[in-house]
Amino acid sequence: MIIDAHAHVSPTTYGATEKYLEVLKQSGIDQAVICPGGMLDVRKMSEFVSGQKKPDTVPKNDYVARCVVSSPSLLGMACVDPTDPRAAEKLEELLEQGFRGLMVSPLVHKFSFPDEAMADLAWLCGEHDVPVISHNGWRPGANTVDYVQLARRFPGTNFILEHMGALPVDVEAADAAAELDNLFLETSLSSYLHLAGTVKKTGASKVLFGSEYPLSHPALELRKIFLLPLTDDERERILGGNIRGLLRLD
Length: 250
Known about the structure:
Elements: E1 3-9, H1 17-27, E2 31-36, H2 45-49, H3 61-70, E3 74-76, E4 78-79, H4 87-96, E5 102-104, H5 116-128, E6 132-134, H6 144-153, E7 159-161, H7 171-179, E8 183-186, H8 192-202, E9 207-208, H9 218-227, H10 232-246
Parallel strand pairs: 1-2, 2-3, 4-5, 5-6, 6-7, 7-8, 8-9
Helix pairs in contact: 4-5, 7-8
GO molecular function: carboxy-lyase activity; hydrolase activity
Keywords: Hydrolase, Lyase
Protein name: Amidohydrolase family protein
């Protein structure tokens, strides 16, 4: 079974779930983990990076919840703003509704991984045995080293780092994933060189296939996994087995 471990859906023309489900079918992917999208228009990323545009800071968790109810092949990850005074309370409510983990976005919400508010959320995820997933924020307090320190601080919580860290190659992320039992790397947008070297260093058990839809096409990201020199068991782990374990789907 192939599972896209990281995609974004939103009530937009480019991120609608109906379109994503069609793409999944075309790509031969059985299940997917969806996160609230649309807070940043990925088609205009340079305008957000330059400060010309501001993100929509309200996560569309309700949209993700409706998508999961209507499509059994989809699994939802909640998103909360760690700077919200009610962040932990909101996450607790979302997990009770059936969300499978927490996505945080340092590009949208101005928090840092060492913040105590982030610590509260990480602890809560450990208590519920659900993972935290995030990308780098490319600023002090929101880079690979900061995320790794958070994973070290909460060894009972599983952490997933999108895009295998900072693009195009993040040796620090690979080294940390090889060392820490609770740190996993998601493959979307990563370079083939980094992907091949990381799997060799960490083993297939620490790597999760993801697409970062709608920014990338699942079939394109999937092709990189099939080009890797892997055994059938290693490829099965990356394409679905590892995320099944993290989300306790078995």
